[in-house]
Amino acid sequence: MFGPRNLTRETGTVVATTQAETLDQHRTLVDHLDERVRALVRGEGVDPQRDATVVRRIAEGVVREHDERSLTGQVAPVPDVGTMVGELVARVAGFGPLQPFLDDPTVEEVWINDPSRVFVARHGRHELTNLILTSAQVSELVERMLKSSGRRIDISQPFVDAMLPEGHRLHVVLEGISRGFSAVNIRKSATGPP
Question: Where do the coiled-coil regions begin and end (predicted)?
């Protein structure tokens, strides 16, 4: 099984790069830059959910610094600076991999029936997305969403309804109550925050 091939200019050799390898390299790069952004956010005492513009400024600086290092050959360059900055801001100040759906005006609702089954509704029609999460990612997202709402979920309170800052309604059913994983539903507000 062969993936796309890249020709290196220095040696003229063909290097086989599978999509899985490319995805792993991307994840490693995003994780590395994410750690750097989070460290700077903590160091500056920034509340990422309240100061997303400051997080964006920090992310832009981290990506710019990384790209400058890539000119020396020490690290690989960032393929798309704008996309990388957006992904970092979503991970640090937003709701991670769900943020693009929350930012998309055509998406009316997002729900997670299982970490590997994330759905959206557009124009009243339900779609299975290609987003696959881990249980840990779902737990982290639920914790972050509930923190922004001031609500909590635990065994004594296994269901929670909350309002997200953008005016979206959040409903979560705790893992164990729902077949071994936390179930999440976000119904987007048509008008934004109250």
Answer: none
